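haha ok so turns out i had the wrong file open the whole time. this is the CORRECT one, sorry everyone. sequence first:
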Amino acid sequence: MRLVSSLALLLTAILTASPELIADDKEPAKPKKPAVEMNDAEKAFAELMTGADLVGSFSVDGRKGTPKEDRYTISKAEKVKDGKWMIHSRVKYGDVDVVVPVPVNVDFAGGTPVLSVRDLSIPLLGKEFGACILFDGERYAGTWSHGKVGGHMWGRIERTRTESSVLPNPDPAGRDKPEKPASAPKE
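then structure:
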């Protein structure tokens, strides 16, 4: 038993040792790959979007009535390479509640970021998603599409609140309404 404990301790020490301690003396340790370089506008966009909620409304082309409320929670925005970004977004739609990395294009009109996607597939939600969204200060506005349906979206950017206070992204079809408990009177 002492031998097993000693071997486990030794294995743990080897696996957690600093790479510099176990590297071959003939070959220097490789430096970490530097992060993708960002200009000031890109840094400001990454900071604005990381830990942010997009809180606003959307309309559906051809439908009359009051615009619907929506919310998108962004945990992280990171530049992958020139013009290509990964937006880690919480998707809450019906029974689905996951953080999904969404590949997007981000271009800048002067210093104004414009995010766009075309024919995007999102796991668990479907395909043919599209959007073109302009960010101006702490406001956003743009267009969206899902297949043949589309419309406008707009709102403000807020810092993400604690998990217990985050509101779900409302399901436009009303499928996210809680079911009545079995003991509730039937209508």
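The longest helix spans residues 2-16.
again sry for the mixup
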